Amino acid sequence: MADAPRASQGLIDTSVLIDLDQIDAGQLPRELAISALTMAELAAGPHATGDIAERARRQDRLQRPEATFDPLPFDGASARTYGRIYAAMVATGRKARGPQAVDLLIAASALAANLPLYTRNVDDFRGIEHLLTVVGV
Question: Under a CB-based contact definition with an 8 Å cutoff, are residues 110 and 92 in contact?
Answer without folding.
Answer: no
